Amino acid sequence: MLTELILLLYTYYETNFNCVVVLRYWNTEEETAALASLKYYVLRQEVPGKKACEECTASSSDALCKRSWTDVKYKVKNLINAARKH
Question: What is the dihedral of CA 36, 53, 78, 2, to 10 degrees?
Answer without folding.
Answer: -90
